[in-house]
Amino acid sequence: MSGLVVTRLSVHGGEQTIVDAATLSAPAGQITGLVGPNGAGKSTMMRAALGLGETVGGEVHFAGADLLAMGRRERAKICAFVEQTATTETRITVREVVGLGRLPHQPSWQAEPSEKDETIVEQALAAVELSAFADRVFNTLSGGEQQRVHLARALAQQPRLLVLDEPTSHLDMRAQRHMLELLRGRATAGLTVLMAIHDLNLAAGYCDRLVVMNYGRIVAEGAPEDVLTPALLRDVYGIEASVIAHPVTGKPLIAY
Ligand SMILES: Nc1ncnc2c1ncn2[C@@H]1O[C@H](COP(=O)(O)OP(=O)(O)OP(=O)(O)O)[C@@H](O)[C@H]1O
User: Fold this and answer.
1) pLDDT of amino acid 113
2) Is the beta carbon of 44 within 6 A of some atom in ligand 1?
3) How confident is the prediction for the chain on average, in pLDDT?
4) How does DSSP assign the chain, residue by residue?
5) Zinc among the record's keywords (predicted)?
6) How many structural domains are present in the chain?
7) Which domain holds residue 137?
8) Cα 40 to averaged position of ligand 1 atoms, centre (Å)
9) 218, part of any domain
């Protein structure tokens, strides 16, 4: 299958099983949302799928290639990761942060970014509407602005698989919509997107598929309208909620 296929991936943390034989797929050209309560194991699973952290078993393939068998650089040419909190202590500019996305593509002898790298960085900054911030020191940006810079860095990496951990957590409503529509456009162009997201209404609105994780296990997978049922919300989140059709889009809308 084209896209990401994770098969029986397990991660332990001390005595605890954090990810328990997780099997899921994220098809190419689609946005797959990874949802589940705090501590369910979403971040750990995504990191492990990208070869970050120790796995104790399982396989991860992208477009048929074994991601865990690849070297870091080779993998970084294919996969980009936007982590939940990624701060830096150094006085690095926004343009330099985004430029980090070009590193996997630059030959080791290349000391400076090429003209092509510079163009790609400018395009990525424009895509997240931060061109005017290019020379600002990254640490001086707001949380939401920093989140958009990290997306720009990932876009500059020109990945085929984009994995994001809570990319909208610091964003206002307009910025959330802008980011999710940007991801939608990239997915339509063929990108594989796997995104952990807590806001189930946003997830229902923008994801083609949802994968639900609870206590380290995948407990449901499918179209938002099939997955987001009152019974699942009760079982997984412990809440009594109504699921109605969004008056404009018809997508599931959770009221609680
Ligand atoms: N190295 C570790 N050792 C022990 N426990 C760990 C370790 N790393 C993570 N955990 C625990 O594993 C569980 C899963 O953490 P993880 O960050 O993957 O959850 P999550 O679903 O992404 O949560 P959130 O929605 O809050 O971001 C948590 O209970 C966390 O405390």
Assistant:
1) 82
2) yes
3) 93
4) --EEEEEEEEEEETTEEEEEEEEEEEETTSEEEEE--TTSSHHHHHHHHTT-S--SEEEEEETTEEGGGS-HHHHHTTEEEE-S-----S--BHHHHHHGGGGGGS-TT--S--HHHHHHHHHHHHHTT-GGGTTSBGGGS-HHHHHHHHHHHHHHT--SEEEEESTTTT--HHHHHHHHHHHHHHHHTT-EEEEE-S-HHHHHHH-SEEEEEETTEEEEEE-HHHH--HHHIIIII----EEEE-TTT--EEEE-
5) no
6) 1
7) 79-158
8) 7
9) no
